[in-house]
Amino acid sequence: MALKCGIVGLPNVGKSTLFNALTSAGALAANYPFATKEPNVGIITVPDPRLDQLTELIGPRQTIPTTIEILDIAGLIKGASKGEGLGNQFLANIREVDAIIHVVRCFDDDNVVHVDNGVDPVRDKEVIDTELILKDIETVEKRLEKLRKAAKTNNKADIAAAENGEKILQHLSGEKPARSLELEGDSADLLKEMCLLTDKPILYVCNVDEAAVNDGNAHTAAFLEAVKGEPAEVIFISAAIESEIAAMDSLEEQKEYLEMMDLAEPGVNKVIRAAYSLLNLITYFTAGEKEVRAWTVQKGWKAPKAAGVIHTDFEKGFIRAEVIKFDDYIKYGSEAAVKEAGKMGVEGKEYVVGDGDVMHFRFNV
């Protein structure tokens, strides 16, 4: 599944440093605005201890994790919706992603310039929100012109669509992102059709200094207050720490460094898992001596569609799925033992795949 997260933020907040740590791709991280002009693209593996556990039990010839695509998008500044800075390019790039990782700077350092000459993550967030909302208002107004014309025919469906469009415009005009608008039925469908920038799910990453990585600081406290009530998760990481970890050659070295910094795991692991969840994704596994592999599907998918991720023939000729719950696989230690305990389920076309399911598909083409 080619789903993408875009890393956004003002210039010099730590976007490219975070991207480098996530992907070890070596994107330019320079201390001046617009060091990133074209979006850097990286494929990152999703850390999943369950995959490690299955590998340890089975001892396959290879283990293949699941991945998501990350884009590091050029920094946005005030006036981007009108083409200021790299505004048009930024907005075109952000339109391509399925979810947003918004990095805000929450550390003081006189050696790292700030585009607005002072650290204020709440103001920085508002700058980006405003520019995206302004662009969304443009999109909605264009669509509303057509909806209003159609409503003049007195067709009930057209009148309702125009009313729903007005509701969306009113919400955006109140400087609120589309994702905070609770809609149902046709209203929700119209909102989805418009593909608004502020309707994309969002994860906020507060880039802090080393001292604040566990408990935050005054900047993060102000930011948490500002986003209270938003449907979004907030994570604290230190991009500087993450770049140190990414540069280390061995896992042992990384482990010692994490212990020294009083961290349970690299912050990028938290970001990747949160991004995965943000995209409404879950993982199922296929497991055998040849290969243990993680597969990505949307939450709520039924077995045939999930099988199609492996190969379209699996979906077309789907007969049944043999399903072992992950906890049962670990408890009994092997597929044979699970079968013997009567814990393998045989599921049909209506089965909704669960996160962590270990699956075999039977198909006929």
Largest sheet: 6 strands, mixed
Number of strands: 12
Strand content: 15-25%
- Order of SSEs, N→C? EHEHEEHEHHHEHEHHHEEHHEHHEE
Can you count the helices? 14
What is the CA-based Rg, rounded?
23 Å
Q: Give me the secondary-structure category.
A: alpha/beta
What's the average pLDDT? Answer: 86
Physical arrangement of strands within the biggest beta sheet:
2-4-1-5-6-7
Low-confidence stretches: 25-38
Distance between the termini: 23 Å
| Fraction of helical residues | 40-55%
**Net shape:** flat
Short description:
This protein is α/β, with parallel strands linked by helices and 365 residues long. 41% of the residues lie in helices and 19% in strands. The protein has helices at 15-23, 49-58, 87-95, 121-151, 156-173, 185-194, 218-226, 239-247, 251-260, 267-278, 303-308, 312-316, 326-332, 335-340, and strands spanning 4-8, 40-45, 62-64, 67-72, 99-105, 202-207, 233-237, 281-287, 291-298, 318-324, 345-347, 358-363.
Topology:
Blueprint: E1 4-8, H1 15-23, E2 40-45, H2 49-58, E3 62-64, E4 67-72, H3 87-95, E5 99-105, H4 121-151, H5 156-173, H6 185-194, E6 202-207, H7 218-226, E7 233-237, H8 239-247, H9 251-260, H10 267-278, E8 281-287, E9 291-298, H11 303-308, H12 312-316, E10 318-324, H13 326-332, H14 335-340, E11 345-347, E12 358-363
Parallel strand pairs: 1-4, 1-5, 3-9, 5-6, 6-7
Antiparallel strand pairs: 2-4, 8-9, 10-11, 10-12
Helix pairs in contact: 1-8, 4-5, 5-6
